[in-house]
Amino acid sequence: MVNQVxxxxxxxxxxxxxxxxxxEHNDLYKLFDETLENIxxxxxxHLNNSIALLEDLxxxxxxxxxxxxxxxxxxxxxxxxxxILNFSEIREASIKL
Length: 97
Hints:
Layout: H1 2-24, H2 26-42, H3 48-96
Helix pairs in contact: 1-3
């Protein structure tokens, strides 16, 4: 149960991170969208589905990268925290000697 709560919390935070990153990089998305629109206006209509697929893949890829980066950062923080706690325990034990 604790694992599921932790998993849900991480997922919610990852979604928040995605929203923050999307807002911060909106200018790049607008440029990408404008470029796709220009291409769309110059190609035959039967390729419009391919352009829509490219946009969808771009957005999905960015979302996956952001979520993975958040998870990696979280895991790194946990590892560092454990190392600090272990170091503190070792230091306290050596002081007692």
